[in-house]
Design a protein that fits this description.
Layout (H helix, E strand, L loop, with lengths): L1 H22 L8 E12 L11 H6 L6 E6 L5 E7 L9 H18 L3 E7 L5 E4 L6 H9 L23 E7 L5 H14 L1 E7 L2 H4 L8 E3 L7 E3 L3 H17 L4 E4 L2 H6 L1 H13 L3
Parallel strand pairs: 3-4, 3-6, 6-7, 7-10
Antiparallel strand pairs: 1-2, 4-5, 8-9
């Protein structure tokens, strides 16, 4: 935890810098439409609604141009970010990977004018925080995680219970592969029955590539007092395949990321998951 807390702010700043350079101008400007917030002014062109003419600015125009107001679109959505901070996410660099991905997502959400609610789960006292600005998300997450929280098991099939759906809502889950398959299936179905859902999955080479020895003992990080005997490479691969199959069958967009470099090298793919998810809300 100490290592993560020392690096978290630097991770957020470096990923945000990459987001600004790679995502600037790629379908991320605030969408203009028939909302209530004025976002720009421009010269009148034939076909514009005369109700949008700004007569005060037009009267002050030195070249006698007619000026109209442009408004933000009402296509802004409510996004529920479910961030898993349970035991298994503390393995090696998985938390760093997910906070990097969250930084990218928060940048995109801010550019599109969306509203974020951050749900931090897999800790002794889960937290749900309505954010003033999406870009606060990674910093608030860092503050909560580094405040001495106690990680516990994350029951993904229970997550829908504390999400208060309203209007055009979507849910993006940040987690890993450490879920019982039946629990995952129930959880995703419950979420899908209400709103659109997507997954950002952190993985690590060392947990997914079991050594070639036929049998070994592996501590179950979600249940520290137990040992799982006879876990072999085929079983691990089968679990991952079943996990992905559930998401694909239920038409849930997802992306697996292996480390922070993977996040930085796949900036557009991370943004695409978010764009796909928000478009499904309409």
């Amino acid at each position: 935890m100490n290592e993560f807390c020392k690096k978290a702010r630097a991770i957020i700043e470096s990923v945000r810098s990459i987001a600004k350079s790679k995502l600037e101008g790629i379908c991320l400007s605030r969408i203009k439409g028939l909302g209530i917030d004025i976002v720009d002014f421009r010269e009148y062109v034939p076909g514009d609604d005369v109700r949008f003419i700004d007569w005060r600015i037009t009267a002050r125009s030195v070249d006698e141009k007619i000026i109209v107001r442009e408004y933000s679109s009402e296509r802004n959505i409510n996004v529920h970010i479910v961030f898993d901070a349970s035991y298994s996410l503390w393995f090696r660099n998985k938390l760093s990977t997910l906070i990097g991905a969250l930084t990218l997502i928060s940048y995109v959400g801010d550019r599109l004018g969306d509203r974020f609610t951050l749900h931090i789960v897999g800790i002794e006292e889960s937290k749900s925080l309505l954010l003033n600005n999406p870009m606060e998300a990674p910093f608030i997450l860092r503050k909560v995680i580094c405040s001495g929280i106690r990680p516990v098991e994350f029951e993904i099939d229970k997550v829908y219970r504390f999400i208060g759906w309203r209007g055009r809502d979507v849910c993006l889950v940040f987690t890993d592969y450490a879920h019982v398959i039946d629990d995952l299936k129930r959880g995703v179905r419950c979420l899908k029955s209400t709103r659109s859902v997507g997954f950002i999955i952190a993985a690590n080479f060392y947990e997914l590539n079991v050594p070639f020895s036929n049998f070994m003992f592996i501590a179950d990080v979600e249940r520290p007092n137990t040992l799982v005997e006879g876990v072999v490479r085929d079983k691990v691969n089968l679990h991952i395949l079943r996990y992905r199959n559930i998401l694909e069958v239920l038409n849930v967009p997802y992306l697996t990321l292996y480390d922070l470099d993977d996040v930085k090298n796949n900036t557009l793919k991370v943004a695409k998951i978010y764009i796909m998810l928000r478009e499904s809300a309409y």
